[in-house]
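Page 47, continued from p. 46.
Same chain as before, 165 aa.
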Amino acid sequence: MSDTGDFSNINAGPNLRDETDLTGMDIADAKEYVLSYISTLKETQRALKVLSEELALWQSRVKFAQERGREDLMSAARMKETELSDKYARLSVEEKELSGKVQTLMENLKRLKAGFTPTVDAEQLAAELDMMTGGPDKIADDIKEEETMAELEKLKQRMKDEGSV
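Result:
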C-alpha cells in the first residue's frame, strides 16, 4: 500500500484465493459454489433488464418534457435518466465480470469432475474385509472340490459300466 491512498493491493497476499479456483473442494461443494455464482449472474441479468426498461421510460419522459417545453420537468427527468444510465453501466460491467467468472468456474468444475478419482482403494478394502472375516473360506472350497471330484468319479464309473454292458 502506498502513501497516496492507493488501496488496490489491500487484499493481495499469500492467503488470497482466486474466486474461480476450485482446488481443494469436493465436487458437491464446488457445484454449490458455482451455482451461487450462476444465481448471482441471473439476478444481475434480471436487474439489468428491469433497469433497461426503467431507463427507456425516463428517456421517453425527457423527450416528452422537452416536447412540452417544460424545462423544470426535463431537468429532473434528465437527472433521473443520468442516474439510471450510470447504474446500468456499472451493472453491465459487473454482469460481464460475473459472466466471465461463471464461464471459468464451469470449465474448472468440468476439470474437477474429470480428474475425480474415488478415494476408496478396492484392493485395500478387500484386504481389510479378509482380515475382519478371516479371509476366504478355504475349507469350504476344498470340500466342494472333493465333492466335485467324487461326482466325476461316479460319472466315469457309470459310463464305464454302461459301455461294457
